[in-house]
Write a structure and sequence with these properties.
Largest sheet: 5 strands, parallel
CATH architecture: 3-Layer(aba) Sandwich
Number of domains: 1
Shape: globular
Strand content: 15-25%
Number of strands: 9
Number of helices: 6
Oligomer: single chain
Helix content: 40-55%
Structural class: alpha/beta
Strand order of the largest sheet: 2-7-1-8-9
Distance between the termini: 20 Å
Bound molecules: adenosine-5'-diphosphate, guanosine-5'-monophosphate
CATH superfamily: P-loop containing nucleotide triphosphate hydrolases
C-alpha cells in the first residue's frame, strides 16, 4: 500500500499511426526532462534503416514466446503480423515511464494501471503517407498502416485517449509535456 501523499512514477502511453512522430516526440520529452524515460519494447519484426540503436530488442518468435510465457511482458500484441511486447517495468525506477505502444496495448495497460495517461498522436493521412514513404516503406506497407491507423483512431476515441495533432513538432511536444506536468500535480 502506497502511503498517502507519496507520488509514484507516471505511466504515459503514447500511441498513434506509424509515422505520426511517436518516437521523435518521446525522445524529445526525455531530452527535455531527465526524469522521463521510454520503455524499450521487444519485437519480432526485422530492424528498419530508420530504427535507432535502442528502438527495440529485436528477437525471434521463440525468444518472444518464451519471455511471454514466463510472464515477462506487462502487455503484448500482434501488429501487422509481428509481435510487440512491453517488458515488466522495473519497480525501483523512479522515472516517469513512456510506453510507445499500439492502442490494443494501451487498452491492456489501462486495465492493469487505470491511472495511466493515454495520448494518441495523429497526423493527416496525406502527411502520414509522405513520412512513411520518406522512411522507405513500400506502397503496400503504407496502405496497410493507413488502414490500421483508421481502426486505431476509433479505438482510441472509445478509450478516451487525449488526441494531439503532430503537424508541428515543437507544438505537439509542448502539448504532451503539459499533459504530463498536469498529471504530476
Ligand atoms: P513513429 O514513431 O510514430 O513511427 P517517427 O517518430 O519515427 O514516427 O517519425 C516518422 C518521421 O516523421 C521521421 O522522419 C520524423 O523525423 C518525422 N516527423 C516527426 N514529426 C514531424 C513533424 N511534426 N513534421 C514533419 N516531420 C515529422
Ligand atoms: P513499428 O513497427 O512502426 O515500430 O511499430 C508498429 C506498432 O507497434 C506501433 O503502433 C507501435 O507503437 C507498436 N508497438 C511498439 N512496441 C509495442 C509494444 O511493446 N506493445 C504494443 N502493444 N505495441 C507496440
Amino acid at each position: 500500500m502506497i502511503p498517502e501523499g507519496v507520488k509514484t512514477p507516471l505511466v504515459i502511453v503514447i500511441s498513434g499511426p506509424g509515422g505520426a512522430g511517436k518516437g521523435t516526440i518521446a525522445r524529445k520529452l526525455c531530452e527535455k526532462d531527465p526524469t522521463i524515460t521510454v520503455s524499450r519494447s521487444w519485437t519480432t519484426r526485422a530492424p528498419r534503416t530508420d530504427d535507432k540503436n535502442d528502438s527495440y530488442f529485436f528477437v525471434n518468435d521463440y525468444e518472444f514466446n518464451e519471455h511471454k510465457d514466463n510472464g515477462g511482458f506487462i502487455e503484448w500484441n500482434e501488429f501487422l503480423g509481428f509481435m510487440y511486447g512491453t517488458p515488466m517495468p522495473d519497480q525501483d525506477d523512479e522515472k516517469d515511464l513512456i510506453l510507445e505502444i499500439d492502442v490494443s496495448g494501451g487498452r491492456q495497460i489501462c486495465q492493469k494501471l487505470p491511472q495511466a495517461i493515454l495520448v494518441f498522436i495523429d497526423v493527416e493521412d496525406s502527411e502520414l503517407r509522405r513520412r512513411l514513404a520518406g522512411r522507405g516503406d513500400k506502397q503496400s506497407e503504407i496502405d496497410k498502416r493507413l488502414l490500421e491507423a483508421e481502426r486505431e483512431r476509433k479505438e482510441a476515441k472509445e478509450l478516451n485517449y487525449q488526441i494531439v495533432l503532430n503537424d508541428d513538432l515543437t507544438k505537439a511536444t509542448k502539448e504532451i509535456y503539459e499533459i504530463i506536468c498536469r498529471a504530476r500535480l
